[in-house]
Amino acid sequence: MFGERCSRQDPEVDECLLRSFNSLVEYLKGGAPQLGIEESDSIVIDELSIALGGGPDGYRATFKDIHASGVNNMTITNVRSDLDTHQFQLTLYGPHISARARYRSSGVLLLVRASGGGDYWGEYDGVKAKVYFRGTPYTRNKRTYLKLQQLKLDFSVRDIQMGVENLQNSNAVLQAALNLFINTNAQELLKEMKPELRRDLAAKMSHFLERILDQIPYDDWVKD
């Protein structure tokens, strides 16, 4: 199921791990009930908020029920490991991710009161992520497993298009102004979203990885 076992003695062990990890990723795309993983092409994030500017009229926006699809197209492009300390850094790349969410805002934007709600959409091209994790080995039923001790995650997006539509209590001029602002400042807005997004995605990734490490023995993928 996992792919080839990699030898600690192999000078190209990271290349071997790259092949093994990608074969597992391919396998999981169809779902793996025995690992408690359902087939899914999307990540769901309950809520995140951004704030631009201070004071009572500072612009605030909240995004709820965020559905990001296209994550199944992500592949691992690089692996760096330290097998003595059970540390791994994975680089992932996805050509395109789409996001949809419900959106509410308040405050002033571009000298216009931008209070209301509607639908948010985002198209993200060239998504690159780095995931670092560290585990501790333990023995169960005479097999060696890894217990996740730490996971950190960061990401960047090459090109972003995003906007809002179906705004309540609004008009075409405000919607056009909002979308112009959003697209002109897309990377800055993503930067504002990043801290919450990183926390949420790291928690989801940790939960996902814990289930895999609990089910697949470490000695199935690394041998002495």
UniProtKB/TrEMBL annotation:
Organism source for this protein? Papilio xuthus (Asian swallowtail butterfly)
Family assignment from sequence similarity: Belongs to the TO family.
**A biological process term (GO) from this entry:** circadian rhythm
Output this protein's name. Answer: Protein takeout
Q: Which UniProt keywords apply?
A: Biological rhythms, Signal
- PANTHER family attached to this UniProt entry: PROTEIN TAKEOUT-LIKE PROTEIN
Cross-referenced InterPro entries: Haemolymph_juvenile_hormone-bd (IPR010562), To_sf (IPR038606)
Q: Does the keyword Signal apply?
A: yes
Is Metal-binding among the key words of this record? no
Q: Which segments cross the bilayer?
A: none
Q: Which GO terms describe its cellular component?
A: extracellular space
